[in-house]
Amino acid sequence: QVLLVESGGGLVQAGGSLRLSCVASLRTFSSYVMGWFRQAPGKEREFVAAISWSGGPTDYADSVKGRFTISRNNAKNTVYLQVDSLKPEDTAVYFCAAAGVPRGTFPNRNMENYVYWGQGTQVTVSS
């Protein structure tokens, strides 16, 4: 069994920041591409960001590019999402996920490739 646990969500005013964390119970954490997705009430889940196996290349949705930063610490089996300059439209449940894909397929935003998912952490941005 694989368990991903997100934390760090909360309520912030527009323009504020949060640091989301996701700890994975994976012995082979570095073999997975890690991603963040989000889902707002009444909307479909959407891609936010992803990071490659070693923490080099990254990929961001246009809506968050320049404001969000994804990183990972393979020694701690943890992936992070630093969210800055938050907007009310960023309000959503944020999920981390692990993609079991071979090297050479990054970036990949296809949710079908993310085989392990956390339960999510709520981010609420007020105006």
The secondary-structure class comes to mainly beta
What is the first-to-last residue Cα distance?
A: 40 Å
Tell me the overall shape.
Answer: globular
**Biggest sheet layout:** 7 strands, mixed
The radius of gyration is 14 Å
DSSP summary: helix tally: 0
Give the ordered list of helices and strands: EEEEEEEEEEE
* Strand proportion: over 45%
Strand elements, count: 11
Q: Which quaternary structure do these chains form?
A: single chain
Average predicted confidence as pLDDT: 95
Description:
By secondary structure, the chain is mostly beta strands. The protein has strands spanning 4-7, 10-13, 18-24, 33-39, 46-51, 58-60, 68-73, 78-83, 92-99, 114-117, 121-126. 0% of the residues lie in helices and 48% in strands. Strands 2, 4, 5, 6, 9, 10 and 11 form a seven-stranded mixed beta sheet that branches. A hairpin with a 4-residue loop joins strand 7 (68-73) and strand 8.
